[in-house]
Write the structure tokens for this entry.
Amino acid sequence: MSVAKRPTPVKRKSLNVSELSPTSKFFVYGILVLIALFWTVPTLGLLITSIRIPDDASNSGWWTVFTGNAHLTLQNYVDVLGTGGGEASNTAATINLNQAIVNTIIMAVPSTVIPIFLAAIAAYAFAWMVFPGRKILFMILVALLVVPLQMSLIPILRDYRVLGLNGTFLGVWLANTGFGLPLATYLLYNYIVTLPREVFESAVIDGASHPVMFTKLVVPLSVPAFASFAIFQFLWVWNGVLIPLVFLGDKQNVTVLPQRILQMIGTYGANWTILTAGAFVSMAIPLAIFIGFQRYFVRGMLAGSVKG
Amino acid sequence: MANMALEHIYKRYGKTTAVTDFNLNVEDGEFIVFVGPSGCGKSTTLRMIAGLEEISDGVLRIGDRVMNDVPPKDRDIAMVFQNYALYPHMNVYENMAFGLRLRKVPKDQIDQRVRGGAKILQIEHLLERKPKELSGGQRQRVALGRAIVREPKVFLMDEPLSNLDAKLRVEMRSQISKLHQNLKATTIYVTHDQIEAMTMGTRIVVMKDGFIQQVDTPLNLYDFPKNKFVAGFIGSPSMNFLTATCNNKTVSGNGFSVEAQGKLADSLSAYNGKQVWYGIRPEHLGLEGSTTIAGGANRLTGVIEVVEPLGAETDLMVNIGGQTVVAKVDGHAQVKVGDTVTLFCDQSRMHAFDMEKELAIGR
């Protein structure tokens, strides 16, 4: 058991908007709405362009839909997602976004789950197990955060050639896991170390072994931390171009979404509506996952455990 | 249930020694209280018994078994923590059953024990709730329940009432005492509150700076403190100490002169002409005119500095020739700040301590 004393958290007084005067309230909300709008504009433009007809899109800006130039269609989505039937059969067959979506999911889900699983075990050990070299190892791990992943691409590629992992999903899972682990371990450590010490001591006396404490206490109590890291890692992996490009290659059967869209720029460079539809599809899935995961960001998982 | 022995126990952290030469024999069924100011090593000792801290030196026996290197789970102990340490994601039932499940106790027996424990602690209606839905007192009861369902040989309690408000603390205090009377389990209870220690313990271990000061029953600690620290720590308000000069059988100083009686008088003969601490508890001082203590060679005279009426009694702070004493006098005594008063000392209850060693002079 670690006996490191933690400082008592300082309670911050948060600003309560409802206590502000109407003028201040107006300013606060006004500025917030402005920022939100500002940040949303590019995405909105993307979405609108993706539902316009190609002629309109190449002749006028997307904002003209608000001034009566509104010929909207879902055909672009049919084109990128269609399975090859109907009039757009040619486009759909060549775009093959469905295959790319499936590939990206195959790449991203294990690339998120494996590092969380390993990092959680490591973080628990760093936080609550006493073993020689614990501090040094942890410092090395944190130091690894500054190593740019580009540096390791070539050595790993060479090893993968020997191991026959080039162009396989296993290879890209391992690469993403490796690149994600230091940050994952660091983040999860910071969370797990704040779990109340007495809870673990109590479990030790109750007869819990380390595996039991990990599965029965740490995992259920760390769900919010897992969820936050999962979202980051999933987004990075989902949007990453470099790692799949290097380790998966560009064969049709393993191409992932960002890479597919990159290829589409070459093929459909002038066809804005198709490109934006593709881009929006690639954005919509992480967005859906984010919203789906939101309920796991529960605060107060620890409420009631210890006083304070 | 079992007896327990701590023999020459030490705890060292690097160069500092937190606990020095701790010796104690605990009989089966005793309720032992470790009491002392914070940092005195009482919690450390408890944690060594629990196995949460390693024992640097010495031998710990529970029953007849040496426990030094036995992991906590095999020591057959249960511990209650100051901040409850409940498992936040489990309901009360699961919290209480957790330890039994890990010990592979059969399901029907777990159910029986958990419900039995819940009944004793009157938390049956809370079994389905999560800790966050409970009040502080209820949480601490669950923590107690988690300990009793284990049916351990020894209960260890680390300041279990410190986080509760005053009223609840008194309530829980008597509940723990009752629980101990019912279960007759050996209990080690750590607290910094001498009232808790006095009211609950069958024997009390007073500690300071890692050393045991005295081990005795509550009343013996009160009547026969071994040194000035114990005398001052036990009792509330605490004992008054005045520097005095010993002359024949009389201790005296500026504004007071008290003649010792009985054995203390004999012991004081060795201190003739020397300085000693004269110790007297506030409740053993009486105000001239409103006390049953007879006047004689036992007078302290001074000016009242503070009057604290508490209803049943009034605490007076009186300046006796430059030294302040507290006296518990009748609640309706007609006195005010600035009055010059004479206090009578109950000579059979007075104490004296060696000036340098601060050890009690035999009485």
